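Observation: inputs received (chain + adenosine monophosphate).
Thought: call the complex predictor directly.
Action: predict_structure
Action Input:
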Amino acid sequence: MLGAPGVGKGTQAQRLMAAWGIPQISTGDILRELRKKPESEAGAIGSLAKQLMDAGKLVPDELVNQLVAERLLAADTERGYILDGYPRTLGQATWLDEHLGAVLTKLPVVAVSIEVGYDVLLRRITGRRTCPTCSRIYNVYSQPPIVDGVCDVDGTPLVQRPDDTEPVFEERMRTYHAVTAPVVEHYRGLGRFTEVNGDQAVEEVTHSVASAIRELRKQDL
Ligand code: AMP
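Observation:
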């Protein structure tokens, strides 16, 4: 699942996870878990991740690839999985292709990019709130919780991510265009890529993403 920050990758990945019973693997979530760990466990890697994430910069490929390699060993990935926010660089994409083919002999990746205009993204990012317990995503403008500031599922107070402010958003957009655009071209070149309009109702986007994945998967079946 590709797309600029705030296009709804996480929301859509969570909806597909529920519909298809396959896990969402979000490198952003994995890194946020890592940085929460005490220094003694996460070591220098945890604080490096925190520093880069808070500045809107990408974490080095080797670290992210290693985390993904570990996560893909889990049994729940057997029937498939949704990669959310990964691969984000050409280095990650080529590593993943090789890893899936050579090490795991799993089906190759199909990539769907959710596309949304800049102004809509800015509103989504600054309105985004997340549950620190279950990772459910809300938006104060378009998808508010039933009770203001509190998760519908477990009652935990919602938080705003430190990188969801306007200046950090702008840096993340610059990074996205500079570093992630070649990933789109990589999958387009392989004929394993489709774009979906993300500026529709949430259910409509889910429907479009699911259809796009089914269509792209036909070549593997
Ligand atoms: P996200 O939750 O996907 O918006 O990611 C939040 C932040 O985590 C990004 O701005 C990066 O600093 C870091 N991050 C997440 N995924 C990756 C990735 N695939 N490669 C490098 N950094 C990542």
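Thought: report the result.
Final Answer: Residues 5, 27-28, 31, 52-53, 56-59, 64, 85-86, 88, 92, 163, 172 surround adenosine monophosphate (CB under 6 Å). The mean pLDDT is 91.
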